[in-house]
Structure formats: C-alpha cells, structure tokens
Amino acid sequence: MASLQIGDSRIGRGSPVYVVAEIGINHNGDVNIAKQLIDAAVDAGCNAVKFQKRTPDACVPQKQKMQRRDTPWGRMTYIDYRHRMEFGTRAYTEIDRYCRKKKMAWFASCWDMESLAFMDQFETPCYKVASACLTDDTLLEGMCRKNKPVVLSTGMSTMEQIRRAVNLLDENNLLMVHTTSSYQFNPDEVNLRVIDSFRREFGCPVGYSGHEIGYAPTLAAVAIGAVFVERHITLDRSMWGSDHPISLDPDQLKNMVADIRIIERAMGSGVKQVYDSERIASEKLRNCRVVSG
Fold first, then answer.
1. How far apart are CA 17 and CA 186, in angstroms?
2. In terms of CB atoms within 10 Å, which of 8, 53, 89, 273 comes out highest?
C-alpha cells in the first residue's frame, strides 16, 4: 500500500495513525470556541484539526434557503443562519495564526469552487472532499489541479461514484476515507470491512471517519488497518447544533487517541515469539519440559 505525505507527517502502513479532530461547524460561529477546540485537540495529541468551508449562496439548496428555524441568535431563515455560522477571512486568519502558535496542522473541507479559491490564501497541507461533494466533478478537478494531497470521504456514495471520483483525482496524491453518512448510529451500517475493499482496489492509504456514539468502531478500524482517523469534537455534546451529539468531548478525544497509540504498539510484527516476560510465567506454571527448536 502506498503512503502519502501530509505536512510533516507520513501516512501509511508503518507510520503512526494520523488523527484529525474535526471541528467542522461545532464552533457555532465563534472563533473563541474554535480556539478552545484546537486546544482540546492539542491536549489529546491529535495531528490536525479540520473545519468546513462553504459559500452558503452556492451550497444551500434553493428550496431550503427561506425555510425558517430557531437558532441561538433567534428565529431566522436557513440561508441567514448559514451565513451567521460561516467563518470568513478575518476569522480563518486568526485560526491560522493560532494553529501555528500551537503547532497544530489545520485544513478544511471545501464545498464549492469559491471556497476552494478562498483556501488558497492559507498554506494548508491538504484538501478534503466532503462526502456530499464526491459527485461534484468540477470541484474534484479543481482540487486535483492544486497539486496537494486530497482526502476523499466516501459516505452516501456507490462504488461506481467512488471510482469516477478517484479517476478525476491523482491516485498518487490521494487518501480515501471510509465513512457512513448517517448521524443515527447503527453498528450494522458501519461496515468496517470496506476499508480492506478500498485498500485492495485502489492501493492508496485508507482511513476511517466515524459518527458513532463513543469510539469503539474507530478503534476497530485502526486494528484492521485504517491509517487515518477523523472524528467530530465538541466542548459539550449538549451544545446547540446538529453535529454536537455525535461528537467526542475533550476527555473522550484524549482517551481515544491514547487507545489508538496502544493499539499501534499492540499490533506487533506478526512473528510469533516468546517474550522474556512470558518465561517467568512458563517457569511457574508449566510442569512439562519446554522443547526448544
């Protein structure tokens, strides 16, 4: 399986799992909340944080724009809410400066061509294709022309759609991410064996993005070979917003990263051997002579 360089990190078999804390829109439009989430990612030992960048007028379906909803800022149209949540140049400049100070890599999923162009002003190490954008040929081709690594999420997509997307991208600069785009956790729909299927067919590094409650499937994904992990994070799962309930709080994030590092060490070489620590047990517990050779 090929490996891929993202910033200072090599991603692939034999390298530490690259852990991304997805802030997404869980900053609720507040840069100070974003900074606290960056701090949580730093404290947990994550490799990067990820945001979502949209141009609301381009991304929000016409039929949804004027629908009204209750928000922390009062009742407003959905399009006004999306504008209220979106960070612009000033906010991302502050985030970029803060991440540099904290030595934390950051990048964003770009949902449209204008957002892709927007990100050019920052030296992010890669681009992310959100699952919802996998069928946007123009966007994928635009990302490919940037000559940076592309992280491709594959939720809500058929194999035919995924193959088409891969063909539009540079397979030598691609990391695929298995995910199920359901925010109602159902273990029967996680389907972790897709990680192996992607690895066999496409030959590129493969990761996992989970939306489960807790992180047991995430650890299982690492154990079967996921080299990249992405999970939503929040300061408090009870906060207002659709992504908070399926996110990890700071303590959960820290515990998950620690468990991933244990799993990496526990996987071993695959060569059966008797460890010195076992010889003590052998001398104590075995009654028969151990035959060597």
1. 25
2. 53
